[in-house]
Design the sequence.
């Protein structure tokens, strides 16, 4: 590991959390399985020179240190993904694809992800929260505990003091208010199952795969897709856009949680599919597909989010834990929508939207 990487790690990781378990387990696996060790070494050697911390040709011991430091990484707004970006590079090497075929490796990744989540739920993770509070717009709108946020997860899942005042929902029978704070990016019309649509990072899936096991996914062929990107500093909860009934719910764990041989699925991280039917006009249907961040990849749902439940506009549905996230809004062919979101095609000139502001309207 480079000197700069070690210096960065010293500055931004905590020392009050026992993070050695996954690294020790990884080294034990490599000592007991030479083929696995060779695959891991090959994957590391194939890394590009653009990585920030993990570099081509690093030893297995360096790789173990990388994961230990990552577990204890305390997020800073200037660079929330310094470790996950490097792991994405690693996971896309040709040799890494063979690792995905190893159930033991999938189990280890889950162990790592769970440990990382435990760190973010610990008091060791709160050392940079004050810097985030300083940069969050209108932080005075949020509930702050008298002694401050105990963990980064507490800060990330913060609540409004008065949600209806801070995030009023646009009214109108045919309007589709935003289910979350976000930057709307990419509108796709005339969806086809023969094409993959960009969801997050390098993740692209076709319509049927985006919708998991929804039995009427064909209804969305010919429909539309809008991608909503949540930046790390944003409010990370998802609410019902209008009065509706939940028609379908599916939790899709993705490769970080499931053992499978599908490299594409491994890259999708954890996501869910929630199909909503508007109560005032049952012909109006949308699917919300929240997609979690690269590692912790956690989406926590309210118990009310289940098929048959009736939701009121603005009612809390779910929240993400740690990091930038994405919500894809899909519309079936039979419920065409005119989207009225800002044109954010220029990454240097983007306009965000608050939850409750109209994304468009059913035609």
Sequence:
């Amino acid at each position: 590991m480079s000197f700069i990487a070690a210096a960065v790690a010293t500055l931004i990781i905590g020392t009050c959390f026992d993070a050695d378990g996954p690294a020790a387990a990884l080294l034990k696996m490599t000592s007991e399985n030479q083929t696995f060790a060779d695959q891991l070494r090959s994957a590391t050697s194939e890394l590009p020179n653009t990585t920030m911390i993990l570099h081509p040709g690093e030893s297995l011991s360096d790789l173990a240190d990388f994961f230990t430091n990552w577990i204890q990484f305390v997020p800073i707004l200037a660079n929330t993904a310094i470790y996950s970006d490097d792991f994405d590079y690693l996971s896309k090497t040709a040799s890494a694809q063979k690792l995905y075929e190893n159930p033991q490796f999938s189990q280890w990744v889950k162990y790592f992800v769970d440990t990382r989540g435990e760190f973010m739920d610990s008091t060791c993770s709160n050392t940079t929260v004050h810097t985030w509070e300083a940069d969050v717009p209108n932080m005075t709108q949020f509930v702050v505990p008298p002694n401050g946020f105990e963990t980064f997860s507490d800060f990330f899942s913060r609540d409004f003091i008065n949600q209806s005042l801070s995030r009023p929902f646009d009214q109108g029978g045919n309007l589709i208010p935003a289910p979350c704070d976000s930057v709307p990016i990419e509108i796709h019309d005339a969806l086809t199952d023969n094409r993959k649509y960009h969801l997050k990072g390098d993740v692209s899936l076709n319509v049927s795969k985006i919708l998991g096991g929804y039995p009427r996914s064909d209804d969305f062929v010919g429909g539309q897709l809008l991608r909503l990107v949540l930046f790390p500093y944003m409010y990370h909860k998802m609410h019902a856009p209008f009065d509706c009934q939940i028609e379908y719910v599916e939790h899709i764990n993705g490769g970080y949680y499931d053992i499978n041989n599908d490299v594409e699925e491994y890259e999708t991280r954890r996501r869910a599919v929630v199909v909503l039917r508007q109560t005032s006009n049952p012909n109006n249907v949308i699917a919300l597909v929240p997609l979690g961040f690269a590692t912790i990849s956690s989406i926590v749902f309210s118990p009310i989010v289940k098929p048959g439940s009736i939701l009121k506009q603005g009612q809390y549905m779910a929240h993400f834990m740690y990091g930038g996230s994405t919500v894809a809004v899909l519309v079936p062919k039979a419920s065409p929508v005119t989207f009225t979101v800002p044109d954010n095609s220029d990454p240097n000139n983007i306009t965000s939207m608050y939850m409750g502001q109209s994304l468009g309207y059913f035609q």
